[in-house]
Design goal:
- Helices cover 75% and strands 0% of the residues.
- The protein is mainly alpha-helical and 138 residues long.
- α1 packs antiparallel against α3 and α1 packs across α6.
- The longest helix is centred in the N-terminal third of the chain and has 25 residues.
């Protein structure tokens, strides 16, 4: 059961990050802003730097999503990848709490901000609590 929960949480997280990264990399900036507004509730201003920042961020989203999906394929073998995932989810949770008011000023409703922080914390805890045991050397 723990293994299934681990695979499901890593798989959902991986698919989410991979899809969001591909959207940010492949689609026009206007479309990406619409997706961000829908998904996160914030409105971004289009500046000359925004497309570049979105393209840089999309590569990290794709890499993280791919890593989580690889972790899902064989959790015991790729267990080491759970640690950077835990670090990222943990840092994102802390970041969300620290910059709560900044997100509110950017148009994110408090309820949506709390829900986002809660989802990040749930992924962190699911991966932490269902982390597979270390594989014995053969």
């Amino acid at each position: 059961m723990k293994s299934q929960i681990f695979k499901l949480s890593a798989g959902i997280g991986g698919a989410y990050h991979l899809i969001l990264g591909i959207i940010a990399l492949a689609l026009p900036v206007d479309t990406v802003i619409q997706v961000i507004t829908f998904a996160f509730g914030m409105t971004l201003e289009i500046t000359p730097q925004l497309p570049l920042v979105l393209k840089f961020a999309s590569v990290y989203l794709i890499a993280f999503g791919g890593m989580l999906l690889l972790l899902t394929s064989d959790p015991a073998k790729y267990r080491i990848f759970a640690y950077p995932a835990l670090a990222l989810f943990g840092i994102r949770f802390i970041n969300r709490i620290i910059f709560f008011s900044t997100l509110t000023a950017a148009g994110v409703a408090d309820s949506r901000n709390m829900m986002g922080a809660g989802i990040i914390l749930v992924f962190f805890l699911l991966i932490l609590c269902t982390l597979p045991k270390k594989q014995a050397n053969s």
